[in-house]
Amino acid sequence: MTDGAAQSSSRAMPPRRSLFCKYFATLFVAAVVPLILGAAVEASFGYRDQRRQISAVLQADARAASDRIEAFTDGIRDQLGWMVQLPWSAGDDVQHKIDALRLLQQVPAIVSVSLLDETGTERVFVSRLHLNRTGRGIDMSADPAVLGARANKVWYGPVQYQRDSEPYMRIAVAGSLPAAGVAIAEVNLKLIWDVISAIRIGETGYAIVVDDSGHLIAHPDISLVLRGRASSGSFGRIKQLVGAASGAAVITGDQGKPVVALSVHAADVGWTVIAMQPVSEAFASIRAALWRSSILIAFGILIALALAYWRAHRMSGPIKQLEEGVERIRTGQFEHRIKIFSGDELQQLALRFNEMASELAISQQKSARIERLKQFLPSQVAELVEHSHELLEGQRREVAVIFGDLRGFTAFSTRNEPDVIMAVMREYYEAVGTVTTRHEATLIGFDGDGVMLLVNAPVACEQPATQAVRLAIDLQMTVQSIASKWCDAGHAIGFGVGVAMGPATVGTVGYNGRLDYTAMGAVVNLASRLCNLAKDAQILADPTIAGRVRDSIPLASLGQRAIKGYDQALEVFAVAQADLPVKPPGSGPRRREKEPQTH
Amino acid sequence: MNRREFILLIGGGLAWPAIARAQDGTKLHRIFWVSTESEPDPFLDGFREGMRALGYVEGKTVAFETHYAPGNPQALRKIVSELQRGNIDLVVSSGPATRVMTAVTDIPVLFALSGDPVALGVVKSLAHPGTNFTGSTFLSLELAGKRVELLKDIYPKLRKLAVFSNTDHPGEPLEWRATLESCRNLGIEAAYVPFCGARDIENALTAAGKVDANALLVFPDVVTLVHRAKIAEFAIANRLPSMFGWSEYCDAGGLLSYGANQRTTYYRLATYADRILRGENPSDLPVMRPEKFELAVNLKTAKLLGIDLDVSSILFRANKVIS
C-alpha cells in the first residue's frame, strides 16, 4: 500500500502552495507583525525622548565647558586689567616688571607679558623662555593687538600654531585711562587641555574646542592639537555639521565613529565648544531597550512559530489524512478508515468519508462477486453483464430471426385440462430455453405456443446465419423429441420453424420498469411468415439465410412462394430432411401429414 | 527626528555591545632602551614609572632590554643590527643615542632630546614627525639664556659664570652658544668648563674651581644629573651660587634650577610608548614640548653659601622652595 501511495504522490503534482504553508504564514504574520510594530513604535518614541535628554545633557556640558574656557580667558583678561590700572610714570618699570612676573607665576598659561605705555612703546617684557626686558623698547603702536585693545578695551587674537604645532594666542587689554597703556599676554593654549580633559560626558564623551575657521584648539588627546593646522579639516567639517543642526546632531566624530554632538559658541573669543558622546554610549539605554524588545520579539516569534505550526498542523494534518485515505481507497483498500477526533467539521467529514468507504466496499464486493460469477457464465452473458447498457441500446443491425410454433396446439388446448396444458407448455418452454442457451441466442419471448429467437443481437456472433440454422435444427429436433412423447400421451402436437435474416431495429422497449428487448423490421415479419408456411418438422429459410449457409448446410429450394404481406413471390428454402436427425420411427410422418391441415 | 539618523542609531545600536577593546593584556611588549649614559639611569626610572602608571607590568606585559654605551655613541651602532631580530616593539633612546638610532627605520623610536629633533634630522616637523621617530624635546636651548638671567636675578653681583658642560651631549655646542649670547646681553663673563663623560667629571670640577668664577651654571644631562650631589657640594664648598636644569639638582643641594619637569616629560613619553604599542603610528604623533617650567630654589643652600643673595626676587615666582 505504502508503495502505491508513494507512487501516486510522486506522480501527482505537489501543490504549489500547501495549505499548511498558507495557514502557517497567516498565523505567524498575525502574531509577529503587531509585536514588531509595537517594538518599533516604542523604540522610536524612546529614541526621541533619549535624544531630547542627550541634547539637554550635552547642552549643559558644552555650556559648562564654554563657561570654563571663558573663565580661563576672562581670568587672563582680568589679570591683565590689573597691569593697566595706573598711568605710566617715570621709574615705574621695575614695579611693573615685578607685577608682570607675578602674573606669570599666577597664570601658568601665559608665556610672556608685554606692557606698553600710552604711545604703544614696550616698557616691560617678561617671558618664561626669553630674557626679560625693561625700559623703552620697540614701538608696537601699529600692532593689531594694540589697535584692537584700544578700540574695544579687550582684544583676543587669532589662534596661531607655533612651529605649526603648539596653539598660541595673544590677549591684549587696554587700561580705562589711555595713559595706563596696554598689556599684551601671549597664552599657550595647550593649557586649556587641563580644562577640556577634565570634562567627561558620560563615560567616554568629551568636549573639544575649535576656532572660527575650524582649527582645533583643545582636545582631550593633545596630540591632535599639536598636529597643527594640517588636522583642521575634519574638525571644520564637524563644526559645520554640528553648527547646522538645532540641538544635538548625530555625526561621524573625529575618531570615525558616530557620535551625538552639540556645539556652544563662546562669543568672547569666537570659539566653538563641541560636546560629543559616542552614539553607542549615548543611546546605551535605548539600545538596551531595543535588545529587550528584540529578545521579546524573538521569544514571541518562537511562540508564534510553535502556535502557528500547531494550528496549521491541526488543520492540514486531517486534510492530509483525508487525502491519503482517498488515495488508499483509489488503490482498493476499502477497509481503510480515517481517524479524526478534532470535534469539528473535519471530524464530520471523516465520518462521511468512512461511510462512503464502507459503501464502496459493499459495491466492490458485489462487483467482485459478479466477476467471479462471470467465470461460470457463457461469454455472451458475461459480456451482457459487463456491457448490458450499450448492447441493449436501440440500434439497427443485421439479425437472424427464428420463429417457432407448435402445430395442433389450439385443438390440444381446447381438448385438455389446464394442468395438462400447463405441463406441456412447461416442458416446451424448458426445451426451447435449453436450446436457446446452448446456441447463445436471445429468447425474445413466448407467445402462447409460439416462440421468437434472435441471433446476432444483442450479442454479436461470427456467423449468425449458420448459427441460426443450427439453432433451428436443434430446436426442431428437441421439440420433435418431446412432441413424440406428447403423441405417445395422445396429444397430436407438431412444430414448425421459420428462419430469416436481414436488418432490423433492435433495442429495449417498454414502460414503467417493464422492459423487453425486441427486434422490429421486415425480417421479423418474414421469419414469422416462413414459420407459418412451415409444416410440422419443417424448417423454412429465406434466400439470405440460404445464401449465407450454402457452404456448410445445403438448403433445398422449394421454389417461389407467395407470402402474405409481400407483393412478389419469394423463393423459399427448406433445411433438407437429411440434415434433420432421424426421427423415432412410427407415428412421426403420419402425424406430420395431418398436422398442416389442422394448422 | 530624521530617518537617516534613526537608521544610523539602530545600526550602531544593535552592533553587539561587547566590542573588544584593542588592548591585548597578555602580550609581552619588548622595549629596547639605548643610552650613551650609564647606570643608574634616572630617565629609565622615570619612564618605567610612567609605564607602571599606565598599567604595564614589567616582566608580564613589558620587558626592557637596556643597552648602555657610556660616552661612545659609535658603540651603539652594533646594537642596531641586533634590532633586526624582529621581536622588538619599540626603541626608547635619549641623548646622543638618538642620533645613532636614525639607522633604524622599521621599528618605532621614541626619544627625549634637549635639542631640536628637526635640526637633528630625526623628524620632518614637530607637528608631523613623518618618520618612525617621535618623542619629547626639553627646549634646553631656549631656556639656556633664561637660566643665566635667573641666576643674575638672585645674585646681582654675578660677574663671571663657570659653564659646566658635558660635550658628549647632543646639541651641547648650541646650548653653549645660547648661554654665551645671553651672558653677553647681561654683561656677564662666561668661563666654559667642558668635560667628556662621567670619568672626566672630577677633573672638570677641579678645573671649574680654577676659573675664578663667582657662579656656576651646569647644563642638564644625565651625567651631571647622576653626579648632581657631588657638583652641588662642590658649588657650596666653593661658595658658588649654582644654576641647574631640573629640580632634582636642587633637591641634591643646588641653589637654583629652571626647566621642564623631567619626570613629567618621561611620564608623557610613556604615554606615547603606550599609544605606539597599541598600534598608533609614530609618524602621526607630534613631538611633545613642555609647557610648564619649574623654578626651584634651595634656601638651605642659600644659607650655606653665606653670600648676599636677593632671594626675594626669586621666591615669589618659585614653583618649588626647599628650606
Automatic annotation (TrEMBL), chain A:
<dbReference type="InterPro" id="IPR001054">
    <property type="entry name" value="A/G_cyclase"/>
</dbReference>
<dbReference type="Pfam" id="PF00672">
    <property type="entry name" value="HAMP"/>
</dbReference>
<dbReference type="InterPro" id="IPR029787">
    <property type="entry name" value="Nucleotide_cyclase"/>
</dbReference>
<feature type="domain" description="Guanylate cyclase">
    <location>
        <begin position="400"/>
        <end position="531"/>
    </location>
</feature>
<feature type="transmembrane region" description="Helical">
    <location>
        <begin position="20"/>
        <end position="41"/>
    </location>
</feature>
<keyword id="KW-1003">Cell membrane</keyword>
<dbReference type="Pfam" id="PF02743">
    <property type="entry name" value="dCache_1"/>
</dbReference>
<dbReference type="InterPro" id="IPR003660">
    <property type="entry name" value="HAMP_dom"/>
</dbReference>
<keyword id="KW-0472">Membrane</keyword>
<dbReference type="GO" id="GO:0005886">
    <property type="term" value="C:plasma membrane"/>
</dbReference>
<feature type="transmembrane region" description="Helical">
    <location>
        <begin position="289"/>
        <end position="310"/>
    </location>
</feature>
<dbReference type="InterPro" id="IPR050697">
    <property type="entry name" value="Adenylyl/Guanylyl_Cyclase_3/4"/>
</dbReference>
<dbReference type="Pfam" id="PF00211">
    <property type="entry name" value="Guanylate_cyc"/>
</dbReference>
<dbReference type="GO" id="GO:0006171">
    <property type="term" value="P:cAMP biosynthetic process"/>
</dbReference>
<feature type="domain" description="HAMP">
    <location>
        <begin position="313"/>
        <end position="365"/>
    </location>
</feature>
<keyword id="KW-0812">Transmembrane</keyword>
<dbReference type="GO" id="GO:0004016">
    <property type="term" value="F:adenylate cyclase activity"/>
</dbReference>
<dbReference type="GO" id="GO:0035556">
    <property type="term" value="P:intracellular signal transduction"/>
</dbReference>
<dbReference type="InterPro" id="IPR033479">
    <property type="entry name" value="dCache_1"/>
</dbReference>
<protein>
    <submittedName>
        <fullName>Transcriptional regulator</fullName>
    </submittedName>
</protein>
<keyword id="KW-1133">Transmembrane helix</keyword>
Automatic annotation (TrEMBL), chain B:
<dbReference type="Pfam" id="PF04392">
    <property type="entry name" value="ABC_sub_bind"/>
</dbReference>
<dbReference type="InterPro" id="IPR007487">
    <property type="entry name" value="ABC_transpt-TYRBP-like"/>
</dbReference>
<protein>
    <submittedName>
        <fullName>ABC transporter substrate-binding protein</fullName>
    </submittedName>
</protein>
